[in-house]
């Protein structure tokens, strides 16, 4: 991910992993690492909406084409 972002001039990363990520600590740790990489490369973070837990919706549970900023 870092290698790809370093090659882009105005990168955007879609976060879309759904609520199941909360079941595994190592997955949440991975999400946090990706967020740090995005911040390092000034990438825009977007999602397809948030679940009631504030987690980016998985594409199978979201309307397509409706991106929103993800922090």
Number of strands: 3
**Helix count, DSSP H or I runs of 4 or more residues:** 2
Element pattern in H and E: HEHEE
**Residue-averaged pLDDT, rounded?**
92
Structural class: alpha+beta
Q: Which range does the strand content fall in?
A: 5-15%
Q: Evaluate the radius of gyration.
A: 12 Å
Helix residue percentage: 25-40%
- Biggest β-sheet, characterized? 3 strands, mixed
Provide a descriptive summary of the structure in words.
- This protein is α+β, with helices and mostly antiparallel strands and 71 residues long.
- It contains two helices and three strands, in the order αβαββ.
- It has helices at 2-7, 25-40; strands spanning 12-15, 44-47, 68-69.
- Strands 1-2-3 form a three-stranded mixed beta sheet, covered by helices on one side.
- α2 (25-40) links the parallel β1 (12-15) and β2 (44-47).
- It is globular, with a radius of gyration of 12 Å.
- The two termini are 18 Å apart.
Summarize the topology.
Layout: H1 2-7, E1 12-15, H2 25-40, E2 44-47, E3 68-69
Features:
71 residues; alpha+beta; 3-stranded mixed beta sheet; globular
């Amino acid at each position: 991910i870092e290698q790809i972002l370093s090659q882009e001039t105005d990168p955007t990363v879609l976060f879309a992993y759904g609520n199941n990520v909360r079941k595994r600590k190592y997955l949440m740790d991975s999400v946090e690492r990706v967020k740090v990489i995005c911040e390092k490369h000034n990438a825009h973070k977007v999602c397809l909406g948030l679940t009631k837990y504030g987690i980016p919706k998985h594409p199978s549970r979201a309307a397509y084409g409706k991106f929103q900023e993800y922090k």
